[in-house]
């Protein structure tokens, strides 16, 4: 279930970025926006992994 949220959340954000284009008839604009969203996700990945490894995991309820 957690993996679905980890993949679905950024995927949803990437889709929203791709959907922000005003020219809906242009496939190149949508492709460009999807490329931008993918680039943003790839740039955020090292920071996410670093934070995951450096901060302790909480065991038990908050």
Protein model, in words:
Helix content is 74%, strand content 0%. The model has no long low-confidence stretch (mean pLDDT 77). With 62 residues, it is mainly α. The protein has two helices and no strands. Helix 1 (2-19) runs antiparallel to helix 2.
Q: What sequence of helices (H) and strands (E) makes up the elements?
A: HH
> What's the helical proportion of residues?
over 70%
User: What is the number of E strands?
Assistant: 0
Radius of gyration: 16 Å
Share of β-strand residues: under 5%
Low-confidence stretches: none
Global mean pLDDT: 77
Biggest beta sheet attributes: none
Distance between the termini: 19 Å
The general outline is elongated
Q: Which class of secondary structure composition applies to the elements?
A: mainly alpha
Helix tally? 2
State the main characteristics.
62 residues, single chain, elongated, mainly alpha, 0% strand
